[in-house]
Amino acid sequence: MKHPLSAAKLIGDKLIGDTPFAYRLEVAPNHPVLDRMHCVDFGRTFGLAKPAVAFALTQLRAAKTGKIEIQLEHSDACTIWLNGKKVYAKSGARKINLRRDERSFEMSFAFTADLRAGANTLLIKSETRGAEWRVYLQPPSAKGAVVNGAAHPEVGLRGVPNVDARIAELTNWLVIGPFPAKRGVTLPPENEFVFGKMYDGLDAPVTWTIPKIEILGGLIDPLPWGTNYNWNYHNGGTAWAMQLLAEATGEKKYGDYASRFCDFHLEGIPFVEHQVKTLNAVESANHWIVDTPLLDFTLAPSLPFIHRLRTERKFANRAAYEKWIFRMLEYARHEQIRLPGSGIYTRTTPVKYTTWVDDMFMGIPFLVQAALLARDKKTRLEFLDDAAKQVLGFNEQVWDADAKLYVHARYSDNPVKLPHWSRCNGWAIWAMSEVLEHLPETHSLRPAILKHFQIHARSLLQFQNADGFWPNVLDRQDSRNEVSGTAIFVMAFARGLRHGWLTREKFLSAIENGWSALDSRIENDGTVHDICAGTMCTEDEEYYVARPFYKNDTHGLFAVLFAAMEVARLNVFQAVRKELSPRSAAAAKTSLTFVPA
C-alpha cells in the first residue's frame, strides 16, 4: 500500500503533466436541438451603422404534432412566422434584456409554436434602429419545459432542399439583408424563399447567405466530465488541494500548478467575456466565470485565490487576486440568494429556494477562509458567525433525522425526501470540519456543530462496507463503491481523530480500511478510478444508482488529495504522541477540549 503522501504526489504529478492551461481555436459548435438558447446575430453579419431590416430562416423538425412555448429576446422590432402564419410581432425600440440565472437565461417575451410532425419553417424579421441587432430563442428557461407532450424539436438546415449538408454543419440559419427599414412595407422574403435570386437591399443587391461563423477558444481534449481547468468548484478545489500538497511536501511545483490555475482564469476573463457577450457563445469554454449567480462558479472555485492571498504576501499579480476576492466577498455577503427566515445559501434550480447540501461545501469553507483573511476581529467574527449559522441552518433543512443522514436537497414547495447520496453527505461533513477547525472554542454555536458532526460520523460508520468503501447511495448496498464520497469521509474522520473530536477506538480502523480502499483505486501513474460524475438533484433514487463513473474526474481527485494529506497528518500526530514523555502526553491529551464521539 502506498504512503498517503506518495499517492498524493502521484496524483499531483499527473495533474501537472496533463493540464495545459490553454485554449485551442475551433469553429463555433452548431447545436441541432432547440433545448437551449440559440442566437441570430444580425449585427455581426450585417453591421450596426444605421437602421435596417433583415431576415433569418430555419426549420424546426418535430417527432410528432404538438405545441411548444418558445421564449425570445430581441432588440427593436421583431416579427416571426411559423409555416407562413404570423405567431409573434413586436414593434418599437428596445434593448436586449437577458437575465442570467444559475443555469439558464430568462427572456422577456414568448410565443406558442404549433408544430406539425416533420419539418416546420420558421422565418424571423428583425429591425434595427442602428444599435444592437440580435434575436435569441430558447425553450422556457432552457430547463426542458414542453406543452402537450411535444419533445424539443430539432433546429437547423438539415433536410432543407438544395442546402449542402456542409452548410447545415456550420449553421442552423440562412439570413438575408440588409433591407431599408420602411415600416408597413412587405419585403420579398415574406412572400418567397428562392435561391439564386438577387433583391434590392439597403446599399446593394442582396441574396440568401449564412451568418458570420465565429472562431472560439475551446478547451483542449475535454472528456465527458470536462477538463482539469474548466472554471468550476472541483477544479478550484483541486488547485486548493495542490497548494496544501506543496505545503505538506515542501515541493513548490504543486503550488505552481495552483497559481497557473488562478492566473489562467484571471487573465482569461476578458477573452471569456468577449466570447460570451460579443460572440454570443454563452456556453463557450469557461463561460461560468461570467456573472453566474451560483456558488459552484463563484465562492468555491475561488478558494485557491483566497488561500494564496493568506499565505503568500508578495507575488506579481497580487492586486488582481485582491480585486477578484473583494468581488467574491461582496457576493458572499450581499448577492448570493439566501433562504428567507434562515439566511442559508439556497438556489433557484430546479425551483426557487431549493436547498442543496452541496452548498455547505460550495459556500461555507469560503466564509471560513474569508474570516482567516480578515484584518480586523469584527469582520473575522462576522464571517465565522455566518459560517456557523449556515451549518446549523442547513441541518434544519436537509438533515434526515430518522436516517441520521443528509438528503441531497430539499425543495421549497415539495416535502418529498431525496436520496442519501454519498458525496452530498461528504460535502456536509467536510463543511462542518472546516468550521470546527477555526471556530473559537468559546463560540456559542460550537457545541451544537460538534455534536452534529459526531452524530453524522457515527451514522456514516454503519454504511462502510467490507471493502472499506462507501456506496454511491449510502443506504443502497447494491450501489457501486464510489471514490469521492469515500475519500471525503476518510478525510473527515482523520481530521476528527487528529483534533480529538472522534475516538481512536471507533474510527481508526474505518480510516485505515477506507484509505486502503482508496489506495486500490490509485494507479502508479496517478490515475484514480471510480469517481461519480457530477449530479443534479432528484427524488429518483435510480438516477443516482445509474450515474456514470469516470477516472481522473476532479470531483474525486481533490477529495482523494485531501484524504491523503489528512491521513498522513494523522500518522505524524500519532508518532509525535509516542515520542512524548508520559507527563507531556498526559498534558497533550487533556488539552483536547472537546468530548469525543
Please describe the structure with a list of short key phrases separated by commas or semicolons.
single chain; 597 residues; alpha+beta; Glycosyltransferase; 6-stranded antiparallel sheet; 4-stranded antiparallel sheet; 16 helices; 24 strands; elongated
Question: In words, what does this structure look like?
Answer:
The protein folds into two domains: 392 residues, Glycosyltransferase; 176 residues. 40% of the residues lie in helices and 17% in strands. α6 packs parallel to α8. The protein is built from 16 helices and 24 strands. The protein is elongated and about 85 Å long. The strands form nine sheets. Strands 3, 5, 6, 10, 12 and 13 form a six-stranded antiparallel beta sheet that branches. It has a four-stranded antiparallel beta sheet with strand order 2-11-4-9. The two termini are 29 Å apart. The longest helix has 27 residues. β14 and β15 form a beta hairpin. With 597 residues, it is an alpha+beta fold.
Average residue-wise pLDDT = 93
Low-pLDDT regions: 142-150, 575-597
CATH class of the largest domain: Mainly Alpha
What share of the residues lie within helices? 40-55%
Number of domains: 2
